[in-house]
Amino acid sequence: MDRNKIYGFEFTGNDGEFRLQNPDRSSFLYFPLVNEGGMMSTVTPKLHGQATTGHNTFLTPPLSVEDLHTSRASRNFWVYADGKGAWSATGNSAKQNAEFYSSSADEALLEAGFLWHRITRSNAVMGVKAVTTSFVPSGNDKIELMKVTLENTGSKTLTLTPTAVVPLYARSADDLRDHRHVTSLLNRIYTSPYGVEVQPALSFDERGHRINHTSYGVFGAEGDGSQPAGFFPVQEEFIGEGGSLDWPEAVVLNTAPDIGKGGGVQREGYEALGGLRFDPVSLSPGQSHSYVVIMAIESERINTNALIGKYGTAEAFDRLLEETKAFWAEKVNRVQFQTGEPDVDQWMKWVTIQPVLRRLYGNSFLPYHDYGRGGRGWRDLWQDCLALLIMEPAEVRSLLLNNYAGVRIDGSNATIIGQQPGEFIADRNNIPRVWMDHGAWPFLTTMLYLDQSGDLDFLLQKQTYFRDSFMSRCKERDASWNTTVGSSLRTDSGEVYEGTILEHILLQNLVPFYNVGEHNNILLEGADWNDGLDMAADQGESVAFTAFYASNLKDISQLLRILKQSKGQETIELAEEMKLLFDSLEESVNYESVSAKLGRLDLYYASAPNKVSGKRIALDTDKIADDLEKKAAWIFNHLRNNEWLQSEKGDGWFNGYYNNDGEQVEGEFSEGVRMTLTGQVFPIMGHAAAPDQIPHIISAVERNLLDAKIGYRLNSSFGGIQQNLGRAFGFAFGHKENGAMFSHMTVMYGNALYKRGYVNEGHKVMKSLYSLSSDFETSRIYPGIPEYINEQGRGMYTYLTGSASWLLLTMVTEVFGVKGKLGDLLLEPKLVKEQFDTEGRASINTIFADREFKVVYKAAGSFNYGEYQIHSVSLNGSEVTLQRVSGGAVIPRAELLSLQTGECHLIEVTLA
What we know:
The chain is an alpha+beta fold. It folds into 4 domains: 10-332, Glycoside hydrolase, family 65, N-terminal domain (Beta-galactosidase, Chain A, domain 5, Distorted Sandwich), CATH 2.70.98; 392-642, no CATH class; 646-717 and 728-815, Glycosyltransferase; 817-911, Sandwich (Maltose phosphorylase, domain 3), CATH 2.60.420. The chain is globular and about 90 Å long.
């Protein structure tokens, strides 16, 4: 094997397992290890990474991606070989780094799956091979496990002295620089028969100087459960004067530990180390010996005997590893694809798990992170639910209901998300800010839920509203509010107010309609989906999300008519203050007048100044629907007439934004074309783009945004910093939100094309995402979809991205066409030729109506989309009487509910 060659990963099984030669030849690689109990770890090919349960509880030093190759603090497992010196089984020694490019360098192989990681590292000169397997056990214990198996690959007996080493940071990330030394003085370090434990006396972080109860430990045993021979609990004593973690005196000189077998010695006031020395072992040629290392975080002192009893043998490790593999495989395999492209099917398994990873990690606890203090944002709550509706639908109803408690009466929402479902916190940073797109996402997610479930009663369920000191979309302060009154909206009489979910939805979409700038598009405020457009709060406008809100208004109007027809809902009960927003019911507003719209909005703000009367009014359902439809139609007409840009090349596109000087951002300028992908996605995805405009938009996107090296750029070059638009343009062009291939918007572009019937064009977009991500020699990422691809083609911010939810949603509901229609199952495949196997089959395993289904499409004639249609459908071998709709067929929910749960049902669809 050529050590200098970059090999791509290859799949080795049917559950996403893959292998990669020479993984340490690529920088920035990391792998997630996590469980539902809150343990969040990261591991690299050299066992770097971190282990934590939250911002204030890091077992190992907190890090960002650059630390992966600059820091010497990592998990390590040293061996001292008699006559040959020190060698690191994880590759983390100064000597191995110095020999990295030489012929005597280690050979390394990565193998990984859901969610386990194995590195096999060998060195011919040393005559030793180490197989290091890492995982976080499924369940609730905050534990990371590592097993190292040493093998003699030489021709003579080899005597090795092993030492497991994990730096114990044991405190908040806030202490990484500020008070780093001072907080080490708080350390109380204990040694026991199996390891080293740290319980700092106090915690120094934003919560104050408080008694600390959290303990952190590194424990270990030989494979048969035998105790270590001694311990190195203090970092400076282990590395020695002038030494370092990658060339420590205690290993290089093979010095005996000060604390021998059994431990029992305590130390205080130093940087701690989980240093475990094991007895020397003599290995004959071909013989091996195993060790288990346990990293643990506990809310009180750790019960070492119980810990070792559960985890401290090779037998226990292997059993728990298989249990963990089975746990994640069961979760991932709820949705599976079988097509003529098996590598794509395996890659999609890694995309499928990414929404689960973001639910567990938030956006904060992998080496690339957008913010580091934990939790998720408002937008994340709703978009992650898109994937959960497909993977874990039983849990979603309560999540959606809880999330609506974050809506304010002014149509905005909370920005601080609590740890518990439905927990929202008043802004502790006292920074007033509104992202104008936030109100658009909840209805989209809720509509998917309604289509999947048919649960129209959900719309009439009641929920509270959020309240803090901000009002009128953060333009004013409520001087009467303080934390003692709580964060729930109240009535004039002091009662907590509740409104229906439908009321919340209407409020979120009606208020923005009136909240417009001088060009009569919705104000950009703090930013929209692109958080980088954050410097146009005064005069900036988001045309892109004006189109989104308009589509919502139209879809809500249609939903109201369905609600009346199916549930007999003749009237809708709403807070009396909201009547002002339905202007067509009484005193109409001139929609062409910006001042008239803003005037009506001010009247509404004045009527509901961070409280409501508590009185409700019943409004005619049809009249409300008419009002919403009128508003939507006005916006569509406005956008088509005022924001359409006709190109000199013959195509055209929509302007997406106005900057803080009130200038139209996009168009053909003397210095070049300015165009955003976002500005095209939402008009196409909804109803704003007229059918005859879509081909022109596609042509303009291909011409101005498609780059053969990195795919569909988020925007063309705007030619420098745009301080009147946002910080994104301070980034170098081709990076992150300034002209990179931003996966989220690219996926939504593909989704929009599928929705509007441009299947081949949509497939081209989706295929580009796979090709870019899976081309390891360029992207340098493990299987999955990254947040973005930079100008070099490298995948960035891997695993934690909302694009995974959208990609999974698109594959299930658009490509395979397995979707809900107010509870019924609609089959509407949009598969292209290469997605069928050689027998003309393509299938999907998924969940619908709380039952598992395998839907198999069999092309009896042409494989080309547009040349086939559904000919017949059978359910468990019995032919189904088809209810045909345009492009597909419906199976009534009642027929599905008659099926047994707990087994997989077969739907076979013949296409001809």
